[in-house]
Amino acid sequence: MSDYPTLEKMGIKSVDNVDKYTLRHQGDTDVLKIYYKRPKGSFLSRSKKFTFMRGRRGIPLEARNSHAFDEMAKISPELLIALEELKSLDARRKEVDPIDPKQKFLSDLDHMEKVMTTKMDEIRRQINELD
């Protein structure tokens, strides 16, 4: 039996490749986006998006002399379970592979330097094309 049955049911077979995830609310849906660690040149997708419809239920209004009901959005139970599994996956990963903060900052700085250099070269090329 798997430690992450909901994630596997959603089609995430290799949970060890999950890098991070984001969750956003969009209208009547919640959008969970899962990002994967992939080697350079891999043809596999870098992310997968899942949408979950929000259920509606009526709740009594707290107004004086009111018997009206207000609609309240209810988060999908499958989404809640998937989020718990993703949190436990993150916790397990941090226990196994603690990241040295100094190395993380140096890595981030190197990445930012590469991005800035590439962007500056692109802008210079566009300026030269204007002549």
Layout of secondary structure:
Elements: H1 5-9, E1 18-26, E2 29-36, E3 47-53, E4 55-60, E5 69-74, H2 77-96, H3 101-130
Antiparallel strand pairs: 1-2, 2-3, 4-5
Would you give an account of this structure?
The chain is of the alpha+beta class and 131 residues long. It is 42% helix and 27% strand. It is built from three helices and five strands. It has helices spanning 5-9, 77-96, 101-130; strands at residues 18-26, 29-36, 47-53, 55-60, 69-74. The protein has a three-stranded antiparallel beta sheet with strand order 1-2-3, covered by helices on one side. Strands 4-5 form a two-stranded antiparallel ribbon. Strand 4 and strand 5 (69-74) form a beta hairpin. It is extended, with a radius of gyration of 22 Å. The protein starts with a helix and ends with a helix. The model has no long low-confidence stretch (mean pLDDT 83).
